[in-house]
Amino acid sequence: MTTRAVVMGVGHYLPERVVPNAEFEKSLDTSDEWIRSRSGIERRHFAAENETTSDLATFAARAALDNAGLSVDDIDAVVVATSTPDLTFPSVATMVQDKLGMTRGFGFDVQAVCAGFIFALTNANALIVSGQARRVLVIGAETFSRIMDWTDRSTCVLFGDGAGALVLEACDGAGDVTDRGVLSSDLNSDGRYRDMLYVDGGVSTTGDSGKLRMQGNALFRQAVEKLTSTAHAALSKIGLDDNAVDWIVPHQANIRIIQGTARKMGVPMERVIVTVQDHGNTSAASIPLAMSVGVTRGQIKRGDLLVAEAIGGGLAWGAVVLRW
Ligand code: UT7
């Protein structure tokens, strides 16, 4: 018998306010046509002024718990992937615990920017496999609208706010690739690339939270190659190749990166979950959001083999293979 971290529930939350591309035409030298053709984005959601990352995370967590038919008392740990916490500390995870009324167990945040959910899921899986926790809420939640420079047309049109969550539970598996649950993962980072995507402020430098800066074109050139190689690395660890993949669930930064990676993997776009047109780039929230939407649309079904892959600031990148 092998212990597997199996998805028992999934859910997401998107703030009410939807901002179409055309809204940026009023204040910036940009166009709906440019944003659509270069990124695939058509609209994104922005959090209300009084809505914080932990609010979004809590809504998504409740939806995932409902979907699993579980209550907060069943949960041992909360792991939140975010780069836009409510406060410098405490962690968003402990705020989510409080908002859910969870007075036992533990919570912590993981910060790997757009790859954050891959790192959080890998950590949550390790907690379950090592016996630290039996049920874990793993959440990706972001309010990137708070770190946008609204005068920088090359970044502010690309990002959005949102949250997605999974409930993972320890289940016995046979120890082979037919098992449901997390089957493998591959994590990478390389700080030499840090200038490609960063925030120009922070606690021990400027003392404020700063604004996002990105060399989009340079990052684009890294993305397809690194995403394909990490997906292949995760698959080959368990003796699988691209033919085994039912769904790629990619980080939703740019439709051209998503298409390029799928093409390199030889997976047709019909087997890729795409939400970038509706959500924009929601950083660590994009993969659990796409999983939740993929299930709602009737695309992802129990037993399907998923490869989730992401890259972002650091650079940090990685992939997880899991059977739904
Ligand atoms: O989530 C983390 C990972 N993030 C990513 O992977 C993002 C990776 N990068 C990208 O998605 C793309 O590089 C972008 C969507 C950011 C940009 O697309 P691009 O095809 O690489 O465009 P570019 O940066 O090469 O810019 C082309 C032109 C430039 O003008 P010139 O220098 O050719 O005259 C930009 O100034 O487009 C201009 N431009 C814009 N024009 C209208 C940049 N932003 C805009 C804009 N509207 N919003």
Average of per-residue pLDDT values: 98
Total of domains? 2
Order of neighbouring strands in the sheet with most strands: 1-7-6-4-5
By DSSP, the count of extended strands is 13
Given as residue ranges, the uncertain stretches (5+ residues, pLDDT < 50) are none
Structural category is: alpha/beta
Please identify, by name, the CATH architecture of the largest domain.
3-Layer(aba) Sandwich
Q: How would you characterize the largest beta sheet?
A: 5 strands, mixed
What order do the helices and strands follow? EEHHEHEHEHEHEEEEHEHHHEE
- The CATH topology of the largest domain corresponds to Peroxisomal Thiolase, Chain A, domain 1
Silhouette: globular
How many helical stretches?
10
Oligomer: single chain
Q: What's the helical proportion of residues?
A: 25-40%
CATH superfamily of the largest domain: Thiolase/Chalcone synthase
CATH class of the largest domain: Alpha Beta
Hetero groups: oxa(dethia)-CoA
Keywords:
13 strands; Peroxisomal Thiolase, Chain A, domain 1; 324 residues; 2 domains; 10 helices; binds oxa(dethia)-CoA
List the topology elements.
Layout: E1 2-13, E2 17-20, H1 22-25, H2 32-39, E3 43-46, H3 53-68, E4 77-81, H4 92-100, E5 106-110, H5 116-129, E6 135-143, H6 153-156, E7 161-173, E8 181-189, E9 197-199, E10 212-214, H7 216-237, E11 247-250, H8 255-265, H9 276-279, H10 286-296, E12 305-312, E13 316-323
Parallel strand pairs: 4-5, 4-6, 11-12
Antiparallel strand pairs: 1-7, 2-3, 6-7, 8-13, 9-10, 12-13
Helix pairs in contact: 3-4, 7-8
The structure holds oxa(dethia)-CoA (UT7).
